[in-house]
Design a protein that fits this description.
By secondary structure, the protein is of the alpha/beta class. 55% of the residues lie in helices and 9% in strands. Among the domains are: 117 residues, Orthogonal Bundle (Neutral Protease, domain 2), CATH 1.10.390; 142 residues, Neutral Protease Domain 2 (Neutral Protease, domain 2, Orthogonal Bundle); 156 residues, Sandwich (Immunoglobulin-like). Strand 2, helix 1 and strand 3 form a beta-alpha-beta unit. Keywords: Aminopeptidase, Cell membrane, Glycoprotein, GPI-anchor, Hydrolase, Lipoprotein, Membrane, Metal-binding, Metalloprotease, Protease, Signal, Transmembrane, Transmembrane helix, Zinc. It is found in: Cell membrane.
């Protein structure tokens, strides 16, 4: 057994709050006795997940050791989400305990996915484990993949197979797009480097590699390879080469041949090479010849391009006969360029069907224009998963200057009609990224936000301001994220409804649905007074559910009342806020309202308060995060003030360089906003004209009609 997997729990009064009463395949939920009614959902998902993994891997958990337990324990003070010890998984409370009156749908979903993640670790992490931390992705990549696909296996209504794309795959594309990123496997020689390995690369890119691999070799062969890998390295450590060998054997046994692909070479490249490719597609509409080229994608337009190449599994479909269900890889692109012949015709082409591969796609201008036209005619012309891909790719391509803002927002016009969660989740992220670079320009920001209200009209009308009983989870999540965004940018309808619900809570004790509290509480406190803040503060102190506590802690940071902000700062430096939540609490204060960053800087400039914050967040890395996060929320004068303070306070802030580097980055971001504001506003403002076909589109349409 790996030493880090040993856990001994000592408690005062903890008890079993839910039990499957099975002596042979025991599954128990353990927590403080005052939470005894909050273990039902965790018990509902745990045993079926264990059985699903038994069947999928072909190895039974309860046969791994005599009398092995499968206990899940909720700790009020656990720092991480959960930890996969043998026989006992320890969770932060909000990741295991569910109260239907207090826990929102997102936190409930996370109870399921994190349970699946930790149970998957029983095979990948416990039954076998990586030899050293340089390959921690073998543990975390598999667990992250199966947190979505394992939970999907027992509850398809959650749509987790699809949610994986926007939650994990697109996250991998985001974190792996800089010149400073690292490979899945890289050298680890210090505790700091170990901690760095537990990051988005190991989790999200590792999981995304497995998704791409599954669709490359088919799921049956994927399952066989995992079974061979587990049996070969049972109760031992494993290297990536052991995994490659298992896939090589499985593909040989199943006679899987894909474009002359060597599976070991394929996996080795993706594991040992940082970054990922951008696939650029040029389509000759007259001949049907498609010319594809690849290069490494960098989010920074000024990054030095390299000559790296990846083996890229290719799938595509086209407008005249779209097929969104054929995910079979037909070609693997291994060189710099490749040509593929399709039927001639004036039609859009989309590569990476349902986005199962780790790469972005750019097209020639005309193909983008046809895609934009198709989406504006009917968003359902293109599958929801590829609409999600298009939204995420377009924002990234605009940032990296691979396409113009005019072209990008021409494509994104379809968001005014699209009400899909899968389109709007990446859209909110992309729009917020731009907004954050306009914060120092209030007039530009106000104009940008005013234009965005038109984008939001249809989707807010669709999801509404109230939760509908028995609605799909993705509709609930769409509303949760959308209304938080809408209220933050000043959407009048969102703010009015939130204020009404908040006043009903304060004045008449009318409960607010847990799935609406994030924006309702924030708006209520942002617009309210100190008495309103005190009401939520006291409500939080009497809460018996950690998810509910954190929802209110987030909201308490939204107040701009001077007394409330000072009381909030006092609170987060004491035991009133759990140590694992204090860094988040500071970030929530900074994000809660633009005025709060200046208040926090003023607080931090006192030597005693620096030490209070340092002790409160506990870890040196967390204090560094405080210094590196603050500049992003400051205006031009605030950056100058922080810079002067750090420069003259190096004795009390030895980490001053962390803050100075963040100030430099913030200034670069502000300058980007200043330089691009005119182009962006012009592009977004000119949306109506985008619906008129371009000259080239008219020409090709005319030719097509003549030929017909």
């Amino acid at each position: 057994m790996s030493a880090y997997l040993i856990s001994i729990h000592i408690s005062d009064g903890f008890k079993v709050i839910a039990d499957n009463d099975d002596d042979v395949k025991s599954y128990r939920i353990i927590a403080r006795p005052t939470a005894e009614n909050q273990g039902k959902y965790a018990l509902e998902v745990g045993p079926p997940l264990t059985e699903w993994f038994d069947n999928y891997f072909g190895i039974n958990y309860y046969d791994m050791a005599d009398g092995i337990r499968n206990d899940q324990l909720a700790s009020p003070f656990w720092a991480s989400g959960a930890t996969e010890n043998w026989g006992l998984v320890t969770y932060r409370e909000l990741r295991l305990l569910y109260d239907e009156n207090e826990t929102n749908a997102l936190d409930k979903m996370y109870i399921g996915t994190i349970t699946a993640h930790e149970l998957a670790h029983k095979w990948f992490g416990n039954y076998i484990t990586c030899r050293w931390w340089d390959n921690v992705w073998i543990n975390e990549g598999f667990a992250s993949y199966f947190e979505y696909f394992g939970m999907h296996g027992i509850d398809e209504k959650l749509e987790l197979e699809d949610q994986f794309n926007i939650m994990y795959l697109q996250s991998a594309l985001s974190v792996d797009a800089t010149s400073g990123t690292r490979a899945l496997r890289h050298t680890v020689n210090s505790p700091t480097q170990v901690t760095g390995h537990f990051s988005g690369i190991s989790y999200s890119k590792g999981a995304s590699l497995l998704l791409m691999l599954k669709h490359l070799v088919t799921e049956d062969t994927f399952k066989k390879a995992l079974n061979l890998f587990l049996l070969d390295r049972a109760y031992e450590h494993a290297f990536p080469e052991d995994l490659y060998r298992a896939f090589d054997n499985a593909t040989i046994q199943d006679n899987i041949q894909i474009d002359g692909l060597d599976i070991t070479s394929f996996m080795d490249t993706w594991v040992d090479k940082p970054g990922y490719p951008l696939l650029t597609v040029n389509v000759n509409m007259n001949t049907g010849l498609m010319t594809l080229t690849q290069e490494r994608f960098y989010i920074n337009a000024n990054a030095q391009q390299t000559d790296e190449l990846w083996p890229i599994p290719l799938t595509f479909t086209s407008g005249n006969n779209p097929d969104w269900n054929n995910l079979t890889v037909s070609r693997v692109m291994t060189g710099k360029s490749i040509e593929i012949q399709k039927e001639p015709g004036h039609e859009w082409v989309i590569f990476n069907v349902k986005q199962k591969g780790i790469y972005r796609v750019n097209y020639d201008v005309h193909n983008w224009e046809i895609i934009a036209s198709a989406l504006n005619n009917d968003v359902n012309n293109i599958d929801k998963m590829n609409r999600a891909q298009i939204v995420d790719d377009v924002f990234a391509l605009m940032r990296s200057e691979k396409i113009t803002f005019n072209l990008g927002f021409q494509v994104l016009q379809f968001l005014k009609q699209d009400t899909s969660y899968y389109s709007w989740y990446p859209a909110i992220s992309g729009l917020n990224w731009i907004r954050n670079r306009f914060l120092h320009m209030p007039l530009n920001l106000a104009e940008f936000d005013n234009i965005l209200y038109d984008y939001l009209e249809a989707v807010i009308k669709e999801v509404g301001y109230d939760v509908v009983e028995n609605e799909p989870l993705t509709r609930t999540l769409n509303r949760l994220f959308l209304l938080s965004f809408a209220c933050n940018i000043g959407h009048a309808g969102c703010i009015a409804d939130a204020e009404q619900k908040f006043r009903a809570l304060i004045d008449n004790d009318t409960p607010v649905n847990p799935n609406l509290r994030r924006h309702v509480f924030c708006v209520g406190l942002r617009e309210g007074n100190f008495e309103d803040w005190t009401y939520i503060y006291e409500r939080r102190n009497t809460s018996n559910n950690q998810a509910d506590e954190l929802a209110m802690l987030r909201a308490l940071g939204c107040s701009t009342n001077e007394n409330a902000v000072q009381e909030y700062l006092r609170m987060i430096t004491t035991d009133e806020v759990k140590a694992q939540d204090r860094l988040n609490a500071i970030i929530w204060l900074l994000a809660g309202d633009p005025k709060n960053a200046a208040a926090f800087l003023n607080y931090l400039k006192t030597a005693d308060n620096v030490e209070k914050i340092r002790k409160a967040v506990v870890l040196p890395a967390s204090f560094n995060s405080v210094l590196s996060s603050l500049p992003a929320y400051l205006d031009t004068d605030g950056l100058k003030e922080m810079e002067e303070w750090l420069t003259t306070s190096q004795a009390i802030v030895p980490e001053f360089n962390v803050g100075l580097n963040a100030i430099s980055s913030a200034r670069v971001n502000q300058q980007w906003g200043t330089d691009k504001a005119t182009d962006i506003l012009e592009a977004v403002r000119g949306g109506a004209s985008f619906l008129i076909p371009t000259i080239s589109l008219l020409f090709f349409t005319t030719v097509a009609m003549i030929l017909k």
